[in-house]
Each structure stands twice: as structure tokens, then as C-alpha cells.
Design goal:
This protein is 20% helix and 37% strand. By secondary structure, it is of the alpha+beta class. Strands 5, 6, 7, 8, 11 and 12 form a 6-stranded antiparallel beta sheet that branches. Strands 1-2-3-4 form a 4-stranded antiparallel beta sheet, covered by helices on one side. The chain has a 4-stranded antiparallel beta sheet with strand order 10-9-13-14, with helices on one face.
């Protein structure tokens, strides 16, 4: 028995004594337990519970602490409209500025849309509770920003354009995702149609969100 243990010790390279048993590591990295009665077995790997996984994820997420601040409006979307391009020869038929406001641990994104048609509601309808902006990011993530209220356009018949001023709230989850990558595509769901637009400022959230976070 003595010679067998010596041979096994040399074969497995390292050991330690715990609770009257010997723990040996094989060249493959497995742990073998040798007992006083001459029997042995492989040590079962410790299972990580769902609670432990959740704790690790929670520990790795840095809490977001917000400032009370209002930033300037910046143009984020500017380009053609698939619908309006059938009637207008305008490259910038759709334009939208974003404006962030952080107050009392709440972040509001104000979106001001400008449509180069004096009857915007005829083509696009309204912004409703079913309306949303889907922002596709460079990492493949899609962040959906949902409107929570009803907004109708102001139509300037004498000037040939319409505007929509609307607000939506950004969750902490939205903020984390938008900080991870730049925007590659923006899709707006109006009450009458859904269109995808060119992103004029893809780094908007990467530049602006740090300004509202402590």
C-alpha cells in the first residue's frame, strides 16, 4: 500500500491532507480523493447556484448615480424619408434632435422631429403610446425607446413643414446599453407607418450620457 501511494503521489504531482483523506490533482486537472481504506473517487466540482450567479452579476454592475442637469439639444437623426422621397427631392426630409434632462433620479429624452411636409399627420399620423424609436447599436443590440403619451404635430402650412415635440423616459437599463456602443440605425414607429432613418450623430449617447452621470 505504501508503494502504491508513493507511485500515485509521483504520478499526480501534488497532494494535500484534508479530513483523513488525500487530495491529488491529475495532469488533466481533475481532483482525486484517496481514503484511508484504500478507496478513491474523483472530487465533484462545486456547483454554483443561481443565487450565487445573480450575486456575481449584481456585484459586477456599477450603480448609476445621476446628476440634476439639462443638456443642449443636438441633431441625431437627419436624412431621407422613404415615403416623402416619392413626392419630394429632399435629402434631409426628416430631422430629429435629442435633448437629455436628468432630475430626481429620472432621465427624460426630449425628441423634436421636423418633417418637410406641411401635412405631417397625413403621411405619418401621430406619436402615440404605441410609438417607439428602435436604436440599433454597433454591437448588435437593439434598444427600444417607448413613448408613453400622445403627441400631435404642429403643421406650418405656409412654410412647408411639420414638427413633433415628444418626450420619453430612459431606464437605467437603457442607459447601460446605450453607453456600450454607437448607433448604426434608427427606426421610428409612427401611428401610420414605420421608417428607418440615417443616424447623423452615432456617438450621441456615448458623448452625452457621461455628462449626466456622477
Amino acid at each position: 500500500m505504501k508503494y502504491i501511494l508513493v507511485f500515485v503521489a509521483i504520478l499526480f504531482a501534488s497532494y494535500s491532507s484534508v479530513d483523513a483523506q488525500i487530495r491529488l490533482r491529475t495532469p488533466e486537472g481533475k481532483i482525486v480523493l484517496l481514503f484511508d481504506n484504500g478507496t478513491w473517487k474523483y472530487e465533484e466540482p462545486k456547483k454554483i447556484t443561481e443565487e450565487q450567479k445573480a450575486m456575481k452579476i449584481t456585484e459586477s454592475i456599477k450603480p448609476i448615480v445621476l446628476k440634476d442637469i439639462e443638456l443642449d439639444a443636438l441633431t441625431v437623426i437627419k436624412g431621407e424619408s422613404a415615403k416623402l422621397s416619392k413626392f419630394l427631392d429632399a435629402k434631409d426630409a426628416i430631422k430629429c434632435t435629442f435633448k437629455l434632462k436628468s432630475e430626481k433620479d429620472k432621465v427624460v429624452l426630449k425628441t423634436d422631429w421636423k418633417v418637410l411636409d406641411e401635412e405631417g399627420s397625413h403621411f405619418f399620423g401621430y406619436i402615440t403610446k404605441k410609438s417607439k424609436i428602435d436604436l440599433e447599436l454597433a454591437n448588435g443590440e437593439i434598444v427600444s425607446l417607448q413613448y408613453a403619451n400622445y403627441y400631435q404635430p404642429k403643421e406650418y402650412v405656409n412654410y412647408g413643414f411639420s414638427t413633433y415635440s415628444a418626450e420619453l423616459e430612459l431606464s437605467k437599463e437603457n442607459i447601460r446599453k446605450l453607453q456600450a456602443a454607437y448607433i448604426t440605425k434608427a427606426t421610428m414607429k409612427w401611428s401610420r407607418r414605420t421608417e428607418t432613418y440615417t443616424v447623423f450623430d452615432p456617438d450621441y449617447f456615448l458623448k452625452e450620457l457621461p455628462k449626466i452621470i456622477e
